[in-house]
Amino acid sequence: MHVEFLDRETIVAYLLDRFERPRHRGRLEGVEPVVSQSGGNPGCGDVVTIHLHPAPSPEDGAASGGERIAAIKFEGKGCTISQAAADILLDMVAGKPLDEVANMSAEALVDRLGREVVIVRLKCATLALNTLKAAIERHRRNKVRAELGLPPEPAPVEPPDMSGVEGGPDPFGRRNA
Which fold has domain 3-147? Predict the structure, then answer.
């Protein structure tokens, strides 16, 4: 979707749809390995957990070490922008090489979300991207650790459950819960 050609009202409707009816929400089941990484914005209560299943890229083959995103899902709570951005980001990165995703600019995501709508909430808009990049880096570190015969890094501490914390109004007038 090229939101740069849409008016503000249509962009807001698009974000609300992805918030209310996410396409990628949930946990990954039946695949290994799964790298789960949580991230949050403590100031506003947004929390996103990315569940990533990396696999060898078919075009690179396992020998080259190139990997792609074979499956990806998210869980989270927070404002419309943070949760819609997570869902839309997963559309953008599904099947992509990890190197490409690790180098993805926040600008590409902000443009896809509708710059004029999300520009005042950049931390919310980029939370999922930053969390995904952290998951990729953790996966890479654990691959090196395995090659050295070391155990994987311990799973990061989950962010606190913010379900009962009032986060204030989001830019669309809804209350966060």
Answer: Sufe protein. Chain: A (3.90.1010)
How many Å apart are CA 78 and CA 65, to the nearest integer? 36
* Bridge partners of residue 52, in order along the sequence: 35, 72
DSSP codes of every residue in 11-60: HHHHHHHHHHS-SSBS---S-S--EEEEEEETTTTEEEEEEEEEEE-TTT
Q: Please, how many CA atoms are within 13 Å of residue 86, restricted to the half-sphere of its CB?
A: 35
Within 42-177, strands assigned E span 46-56, 67-77
pLDDT at 166: 46
In this structure, what token pair is assigned to residue 154? 């311990």
How do residues 33-90 score in pLDDT, each as one tens digit? 899 999 999 888 999 999 999 999 876 555 446 899 999 999 999 999 999 999 999 9
Going from N- to C-terminal start, the domains of the chain cover 3-147
The pLDDT value recorded for residue 157 is 66
Measured CA to CA in angstroms, residue 121 lies from 12, 48, 140, 148, 172 at distances of 14, 15, 30, 41, 12
Q: In DSSP terms, which residues pair with 50 in a beta bridge?
A: 37, 74
